[in-house]
Automatic annotation (TrEMBL):
MF terms in GO: NAD binding; oxidoreductase activity
Origin organism lineage: Bacteria, Pseudomonadati, Pseudomonadota, Alphaproteobacteria, Hyphomicrobiales
SUPFAM superfamilies xrefs: Formate/glycerate dehydrogenase catalytic domain-like, NAD(P)-binding Rossmann-fold domains
Entry coiled-coil feature ranges: none
UniProt-recorded name of the protein: Putative hydroxyacid dehydrogenase protein
Organism: Rhizobium mesoamericanum STM3625
Record keywords, A-Z: NAD, Oxidoreductase
Length: 319
């Protein structure tokens, strides 16, 4: 064993990719990869650090000496409620690549709804030379819910594309050039919104947050005709049956969904067949494994130098 205790890695990513990246990571301490069947029953006492994504429920009882826990993604809800979660810092993944990928997806979805891509797709399949006259981005107000690193970057890039952008967060943020709202002004925020972008973390307060009552408060009769819902935050923050009903009933004109309460999305789920609903398989902002491991190495180095960790989760807030 190396002089330093190894880092515990429990990621539900492709095992071959993880094994490849691990060969170039943590060279001074080694690693225990729980995706490797050989490590299934290994003694995990004495391990200082763990990099986790959807770990097994008994992990913390098997690894009782952890000093820092690192999340394999921007969210931490996959293990915050597991039994035995130790009272140690929890660090979420924040990286330029992940942020850029999320903003790319959000901007793409907003543009597809703006330019009525679903109708072009229908016309192409029917071999119809159909011409559309969509509104300009400046005629559309995009409301971003969740103004952390991901939300703020997406908001700025949507503004560059010409959209009018407003933002909502649990505690009001001051962002240059963007009108912002807090929970005391939620209805006002929704009434101004043509395209609602969900980038909220999953907490008890945001579970089932995007529901029929919320959709009914979005602006009707704007330049798009009917509002659109876009979610790349967390699947359990939305009521999927309410999305279906809102699209079918004309409350929503469309949706783009990347996250779901059950993944993979079952093949018989009605979301698959809805017109003007774009489904992506939770890949809006896939974590780059190399960038993730470098992030963990940097934070461990900070911790061992006695410096403050970055991107530490506020346990009370849940993110």
């Amino acid at each position: 064993m190396s002089a330093k205790p190894p880092i515990l890695v429990d990621l539900k990513f492709d095992p071959d990719t993880i094994a490849r990246v691990l060969k170039a990571s943590f060279l001074d301490r080694g690693s225990i990869n729980l995706a490797d069947p050989a490590n299934k029953d290994r003694d995990l006492t004495g391990i200082d650090y763990a990099l986790l994504w959807k770990p097994d429920a008994d992990l913390f009882s098997r690894a009782p000496d952890l000093k820092v826990i690192f999340s394999g993604g921007a969210g931490v809800d996959s293990f915050m409620n597991l039994p035995g979660l130790p009272d140690v810092p929890i660090v979420r993944f924040s990286d330029r690549s992940l942020t850029t990928r999320m903003s790319e997806w959000v901007v793409m979805q907003c543009l597809m709804h703006l330019r009525q891509q679903h109708q072009h797709d229908k016309d192409q399949r029917a071999r119809i030379w159909g011409k559309l006259v969509p509104p300009e981005a400046a005629e559309i107000t995009v409301g971003v819910m969740g103004l952390g690193v991901l939300g703020q970057d997406a908001a700025h890039k949507l503004k560059i594309m010409g959209f009018n952008v407003i933002g909502w967060s649990r505690s009001r943020k001051e962002i240059d050039g963007i009108e912002t709202f807090d929970p005391g002004r939620t209805d006002e925020f929704l009434s101004k919104t043509d395209v609602l972008v969900g980038l909220l973390p999953l907490t008890p307060e945001t579970t089932s947050f995007y529901n029929a009552a919320l959709f009914s408060k979005l602006r009707q009769g704007g330049a798009l005709g009917k509002p659109v819902f876009i979610n790349a935050g967390r699947g359990k923050s939305q009521v999927q049956s309410d999305i279906v009903a809102a699209v079918q009933g004309g409350i929503l004109g469309g949706a783009s969904i990347d996250v779901f309460s059950v993944e993979p999305l079952p093949s018989d789920d009605p979301l698959w067949g809805l017109e003007n609903v774009f489904i992506t398989p939770h890949d809006a902002a896939v974590s780059d494994e190399t960038a993730l491991f470098r992030h963990v190495e940097r934070e461990i180095a900070r911790y061992e130098r006695g410096e403050a960790l970055q991107f530490v989760v506020d346990r009370q807030a849940g993110y």
